[in-house]
Amino acid sequence: MDTQEKISQKITEIAQDNTSGSSELARRAALALLEILADICEQPLASVELLRSPVAIFAKGLLKAQPKMATLFNLVNQALLIINSHTVFGEAKASVEKYIYSFLAIVVGGGDSITQKFQPVINENSVVLVHSYSATVNKVLINIKNSGLSFEVFVTESRPMLEGRKTAQVLAAANIPVTFVVDSAVLFALQRSSIVLFGADAITKEGIVNKIGTTLIALAAQAQNKPCYVLADSTKFLPSSYRLTIEEIHAKEEIWPEASDSIVVLNRYFETTPLNFFTAVVHEYGALKIPEVKLHLTNLRGSSELCTEL
Questions:
Q1: Which of 174, 257, 286, 295 could form a cystine bridge with 142, CB 3.0-4.6 A?
Q2: Rounded to whole angstroms, how far apart are CA atoms 171 and 178?
Q3: How is the chain split into domains, by residue range?
Q4: Is the pLDDT of residue 309 over 50?
Q5: What are phi and psi of 127, to 5 degrees?
């Protein structure tokens, strides 16, 4: 199998994966990129173009297959930035491979690092409100529970796909007291909570991209003077030069299969919530207050192959 065939195969495999979370897809994409690099052998007088072209093809195909995942963008964007900063083939390849291994360490172990940074925020007998499903949030809460701290959690159902049920099951299996509530009862849960936690699909200058309902909960938390944190590793931050695609409408059958054609059934999965609705974003390097988040975002760069500078 030549390099082009391998690229097509890896992209197809990732495109067809509709069940894995962003961390698992990122792990698979990183391993695929390592395989592709391994197939590219240095030749006499080889230029970095020998690396740039296949990596750019993989990057564009990957983002077309999974356009909503900031983590995948950051994997391939940084790889291209590294390649573009070198003029020697061997140095460029070694630097990209080194980066991929550091990327994998963040994706696989980021939750543990975030726990260390976030744990002082949770007090004994805290009541935590969680919306939707986030592997990072779940891992942090389970780690804190295993450290000996006692707390309880409210979990929203998170319609239409009801991934809150998975969150509730995961946390309950870790012996964390869980109360599961329908989305319309979130104010009841919020009034009895001391802190609100969200994951993130992406962090952009426009706001936090996350499951529908995030904005309403964050706004209500702000009105109730409840701290509202986003737990997400550094691979979720996006430069302003990259336009993230957010799906707008999904099948009405997921909400109301019997609805007549004269009724418009609005079924959205994601929304962008303004940064100022949150207290801070906690990643593996520490907690960033919102002005710090905005500053960090302005310093991010996009590769010329994937982004249009604005």
A1: 174
A2: 7
A3: 3-109, 122-298
A4: no
A5: -120, 120
